[in-house]
Automatic annotation (TrEMBL):
Name the UniProt record assigns to this protein: Putative 15-hydroxyprostaglandin dehydrogenase
Record organism: Triatoma infestans
Family designation: Belongs to the short-chain dehydrogenases/reductases (SDR) family.
Cross-referenced InterPro entries: NAD(P)-bd_dom_sf (IPR036291), SDR_fam (IPR002347)
Pfam families: adh_short (PF00106)
GO MF annotations, alphabetized: oxidoreductase activity, acting on the CH-OH group of donors, NAD or NADP as acceptor
Amino acid sequence: MKVAIVTGGSSGIGNHLCQRLAAQNYKVAILDVEEKDGLDLCNNLNQTYGSGSCIFCKCDVSDETSFKKSFEMTIKEWGKIDILVNNAGLWDDSPEGWRKSIDVNVKGIISGSLLAIQYMGMNHGGNGGIVLNVASIVAFPVCPVLPIYSSTKAAILKFTRDMGTEHQYQLHGIKFITMCPHATGGSKLFRNSEKKFIFNDENFVKPFYAGKFGVLQSVDNVAQGIMESLHKGENGSVWMIEDEKGARKIEIPEIKVKEFV
């Protein structure tokens, strides 16, 4: 029996990932702030794959107490956790929303990763496992129209690569993997997008709509790519998923600096 936690699991990528995990006989804990959607999905999975296949935990990943309770609920239900997918994310670069974006995208992923070590790490009596953190392809290029969101995704990428080192693995036995999807349709991320820019001047936001963000891949395509990277991904590996081409590993060149001691 394998047990997986998926944050942001009630809709979009998370919803499809939970379905794919349950179909492969994983026990799935759906974590989300959206209670109705989460409970509906949980009920559907339990009906399809058998009672006890899934639980729902109402969780705001930016609230560490809430996040910790969800880990404890999962352990109480199944006795262990094998996989954490930190999928919950928020895009809102607006003056009103950017702080919450940092709380969810950066603090939430760091909090989840450290809780995974606490509850899954061999140094804490666990069996090890996998943490997959969902970043974005915007972590790599300069993104003048998404400076805060893209910076949070760059932070996720850096943090996860640092956690996915042999030095860390020898301590806790957890593989850390990063997935960087291209723009994805069918998620709540792009809803009310006109209100989410750092500046709402029409000339400022034109490049966003004129660029590749107009070509959106399906959420299920990303979920499939996450499943592939969970099965194939090495510790510290970085993956990209776009269109229907499947997931592929990204090789990031090293820049030689003085070794940290």
